[in-house]
Amino acid sequence: MKLVIAMLMDGMIYASWLFLIAAGLTLIYGVMRILNMAHGSFYAIGAYAGASLVGFYLAGGYPPWGAYLVLLGAAIFSGIIIGLLVERGLLRFMYGRDEVVMILVTYAILLILEDVIKLAWGVDAYFAYQPYTLLGRTKLVGLSYANYDIALIFISASICFLLWWGLNRTRQGKLLQAVIHDRDTAAFLGINVTRMFTVTFVIGAVLGTFAGALTAPGISVMPGIGIEVIILAFAVVVIGGLGSIGGALTGALIVGLARSASVHLYPEAELFVIYGVMAVVLAFRPQGLFAIATARKI
Amino acid sequence: MFRSFAKKSTLTGLILVSAAAQPILAADDYKLGLVTFLSGGAAGPFGIPAQNAAKLVLETLNAGQLPAPYNTTGINGRTIVPVFMDEAGGATKQASEYRNLVERQGVDAVVGYISSGDCLAVPAVAEQLKTLTVLFDCGTPRVFEENDFKYVFRTGPTATMDNVAAAHYINETVEGLKSVSGINQNYSFGHESWADFNGSLNQLKAGVDVTTEQFPKIYAGQYGAEISALMVNSANVIHSSFWGGDMEAFLLQGSARGLFEDQTALLTTGESAMYRLSDQIPEGTILGGRGPFGVFAPDTALNRWFREAYTSEFGTPPTYPAYKMVQGILGLKLATEKAALNVNGQPSTEDVVSAFEYLEYEGPGGKVSMNRGKGHQATMEMVYGRYALQDGKPAVTDVRHYAAACVTPPEGMTSVSWIEKGMPDAQCD
Amino acid sequence: MKIATILLIAAAIAALAAGLVMPGWLTFMLTLALAKGLVVLGLLLLMRAGLVSFGQGLYYCLGAYCVGIAGDYLQTQNALLLMLLAVVACVALAAIIGLLLCRYRDIFFAMFSMAFSMILYGILVKSTAFGSTDGFNVKPPLLFGWTPGGESSPMMAYGLAVVAVTGVGIFVWNYLRSPMGYAGEAIRENEIRVEYLGVSVRKVIYIKYLLAAAMAGLGGAITALAAGHIDPEMAYWTTSGEFVFIALMGGTGHAAGPVLGSIIFELLRTYAFQISPYTWQMILGTALLAIILYLPKGVWSLVERITKRIAA
User: Fold this and answer.
1) What is the pLDDT along chain C (312 residues), one digit of tens a residue?
2) Which keywords does the record carry (chain A) (predicted)?
């Protein structure tokens, strides 16, 4: 029983983290058809901005609860800046290129941003663990969990709900759905696709920096953290079906639970889990679980 | 218009940069290649501290201001000019870059390599090019157990020594030791560390249970599930050879969940985190520094100078990669100067090689003896201690030293078979 | 013989002759670049059919490990035998995986092929007998017991690489002009129409996949022989990504693109390392962006533009 609950809890926590890093990626892909490798850099920038600003804030002797607001502010601020810079400054000149070329373009951005981060923050690790430990912990059937991690589950769930609501229940969201389904027709109907692209990209970038800022308190923020999460996010998104928010959620849950089951029952397999799950899902659902239907061109 | 201008300006920029990058070299300068990680996850904990230490020591050596016996200028009077190189890109890439260092940039010798994979790939090229190469940090014992190299030396102890000493330490200091668990990164260093630790513990004390062996991916950063597994399968001691960001993340996440309240963590590289995370490491945690480095280093003039100079220059006390880098450079300097005593002018590489073999010298971490691998592999004493706050400041207590002969296989025997056979001929006090 | 073939052979002979006077580092670097060029030539076949594999590292690594393991196990240093073994093993594996993969397109083909290469990576990381992530050393190659320039010379592997690239290059050049080769481009444009024409799309893709695997295996084998060391990194997704990077850099329009691309890539990277050890990634990224912006069809398009201008 203890084992089952541990597996479920660990799986859920890991899944909520995976969803956070995958949400922005899948949103950008869904709207813009860009598989954004630079998402890893956004994550890293968010983590650096969060960790360094929290450190700065706490060193000033302000009340520790404010650190959560600082994290949030750092994520939104850095996400908007980097999102606008990348989209307005670079990507918009590349629209219409092949999907693979776009992956390479974002890969080049990732390479550049890796060094930009190094130049801006140096290579020494940043810590901002106060927000992580401040919330204390909860005991569940004899196992302690950090309340921060439990809160992560709720935050992920709310983001998922917000995205769903924004896409399905608001006017702007419905316009965006039109763009997702058929870019040309949407433009033809008078939707400002270019602006939609910019807004989507910035929201996606903020989701990326937000994931980084939320992760920062529990880790040591240092060079290379961005590269590590990209492939995880890719796998989650592909399992769920590219471009689908519900798919990213399902993919995250499947990978999270499978990974925690493996850690508890058969640690040897941990390295294979994510690719194993991906191979099995793709073998039966070649387009992932919740693929957006595409028209066949004859 | 703009495009062609942009093209031209990038081109000129590149030309300018490449022109500026050519250092002005006097004829008798000693060009030293220094290869450490400057990008990726190993740069922060290892690569940059090592590079910083190298910069500091080379500057001081060139001015001839290091404490005796290193107070002569440069290497045998020649001013040392460093050529830094990133270790990123994998073993094949590094073999290629090594050739570039030697054949294109014309370095006299190379000190470097943190990754064990690079330490296995590079020596073959070093032998072909007959260039003196000092491996300073990598841990795998395989380098000199599987090969005989002439031009390659390693001035740092192997990872086997770490883990055998760790087994000794918990066997001696943990009362009622019944069980251990392990969390190590899923790559060679992690596998070997755990196998050496667990193997030697079995030889020292029969009947210690292993409750769980976790091998998360390197740079994973999220250890929630592993921490739960360690809690479910509780043990007296949790062994971990995590380093850098992974170790620090594991410490943070484990502390926040109270993992270390009824289990003791044994961190073979923990020393490097004790100043950075001083209020997050539980007291009583067993820390190692991969040798007598950092807080475990002896109180000598050289060490005092190094700690003070490094701390004032870079703002933090030096960790073990910094110590090991200094040790590598000093070994090279001593061997070259020893070889120079018997020849007129500058000694040949072969002269330096024979002077380097079986060399014994004092580094900032104490005595280094090049007495394994036919005189090419260093041994040092090993030190472990427990973390404690003394007057609110991070420190170590219950420090134990293990002589090199206690934790190192005798010449000609591999670490794996030495541990399997019950560590024969180990001379422990 | 066609003019192009003669030109290529002449270029190969010139490259071999140049090898005699080149400095060692350049020979070594060119060998690695040519080996990668072989992998990318295979990738080019797939990319012409609109399929981008992010998993060619699977065969690159498998080929290398075949050389390493067979060299130890069979006690042979015979380069030709080892290379043949590597190719056979890769084609055998591709024959199985290809059956599954040829149903996939676009990003799913890319990710699925990556999954397989990451599974090989995982297996190798777990294999302590093969040195886990540290890998192990491979003995220098011999050609029927003979090696030009002594054991320490990089000439032997260089020669093998030049000959292999020439052979494969001629094959690819001709293949792209064969009905099978054109079928690839037709598939990229419109698969359904190709099926209506009575051509089996799956068969065309399957054969291309096998060929690409064979070339990647050959490239891996040459890398192992040249570098003398192999490790699982060769199957990691970043290695596969590098191949795609090179393919786009060189251009997929001509068989010479991949080879040119990989040579430029290696040169660019090694000089970026030398000029700016701290920020070489930025140089690499900027160069890639510049190529995508100014030379959307790869570096080879520049050569074509120049030859056209000369002809005109």
Assistant:
1) 577 788 888 888 888 888 888 888 899 999 999 999 999 999 999 999 989 999 999 999 999 999 999 988 888 888 899 999 999 999 999 999 999 998 888 888 888 899 999 999 999 998 888 888 889 888 877 776 666 555 556 788 898 999 999 999 999 989 998 988 888 889 988 888 888 988 889 999 999 999 999 999 999 999 999 988 999 999 998 899 999 989 988 888 888 899 999 999 999 999 999 988 889 999 999 998 998 888 888 888 888 888 888 887
2) Amino-acid transport, Cell membrane, Membrane, Transmembrane, Transmembrane helix, Transport
User: Do the domain assignments include residue C131?
Assistant: yes
Residue C64 lies in a domain: yes
Which residues does C15 contact at the CB level (< 8 Å), separation at least 6?
A: C30, C162
Domain segments of chain A: what residues? 25-231
For residue C63, give its domain range: 3-236
Q: Which residues contact B92 (CB under 8 A, 6 or more apart)?
A: B121, C32, C223, C227, C229, C230, C233, C234
How far, in Å, CA of A198 to CA of A92, rounded? 9
CB contact under 8 A, C293 and A93: yes
Domains of chain B from N-terminus onward: 2-157+300-379 (3.40.50.2300), 160-289+382-420 (3.40.50.2300)
B397 CA to chain C: closest CA distance, Å?
Answer: 35
For this complex, say whether ipTM is above 0.95.
Answer: no
Number of domains present in the structure of chain C: 1
Burial of C221 (0-12, 13-18, 19+ CB in 10 A): buried
Gap between the Cα atoms of C104 and C100, Å rounded: 8
Residue C294 lies in a domain: no
Q: How near does any CA of chain C get to the CA of A272, in Å?
A: 6
**Minimal C-alpha gap between A174 and chain B (Å):** 36
Give the residue numbers in B contacting C (CB under 8 Å), as ranges: 3, 7, 10, 17-18, 21, 38-39, 84-86, 89-92, 95-97, 99-100, 102-105, 116-117, 120-121, 124-125, 127-129, 140, 142, 146-147, 186-188, 191, 195
